[in-house]
Amino acid sequence: MASNTQHHELALPRLDAPVRLLAVVAPYYKDITDGLLSGVRATVDAAGASLDVIEVPGALEIPTAVGLAARSGQYDGFVALGCVIRGETTHYDTVCNDSSRALTLLGLQGVCLGNGILTVETMAQAQVRADPAGQNKGGGAAAAALHLVALARRWAATPQKAGAHDVIRLAGELEGQGKA
Question: Which residue is catalytic, options 7, 8, 91, 147?
């Protein structure tokens, strides 16, 4: 059940240099993703950033496309957009869990991204969340990406302390995978 609870939203970050974002969209429910993308565009415009958009077949392909684009070095951040509505089978759980997990892993690797993949029970829930005049989850995902870009830039400008470790690499070393 949707709630009318008000949530605090951070103001958009101040960006010291141009930001280029890529929205990766799975348009399976095109009316929904069009609403999400409208919210993304408004937020990106308000921040003075630029936006490119690509489409992929489904939500499971979004993390792969983000990973490929991140390795290209052409973008500062990413916005993942899609919609998964519960059906009659467990496929819903697979798509929701695996796409979310893959995006989280990309984030832990330093990819600045906002997750705007809706995971809902009904089309009505999706419509409310996608509407820029409603919950504006697309705009929220774009804002998240912009905040992470700002943080990445802030911390990239800070010199590393001697002995600082990459947390992800260290976790692999603890699991016996050795140094990369």
Answer: 91
Please tell me the distance from the alpha carbon of residue 99 to that of residue 58, in angstroms, as a whole number: 10
Residue by residue, what is the 3-state secondary structure of 36-97? Answer: HHHHHHHHHHHHCCEEEEEECCCHHHHHHHHHHHHHHCCCCEEEEEEEEECCCCCHHHHHHH
* Residue bearing tokens 């330093």: 110
Residues 6+ apart with CB under 8 A from 22: 51, 52, 53, 54, 66, 69, 74, 75, 77, 78, 79
Q: Is 117 helix (H, G, I), strand (E, B) or coil?
A: strand
Look up 7 and say whether it is catalytic: no
The two structure tokens encoding residue 149: 């870009």
Burial of residue 62 (CB within 10 Å: 0-12, 13-18, 19+) is buried
152-169 pLDDT, tens digit each: 999 998 776 655 555 555
Nearest partner of 56 among 76, 79, 77, judged by Cα: 79
For residue 15, the tally of other CB atoms under 10 A from its CB is: 15
pLDDT tens string 95-115: 999 999 999 999 999 999 999
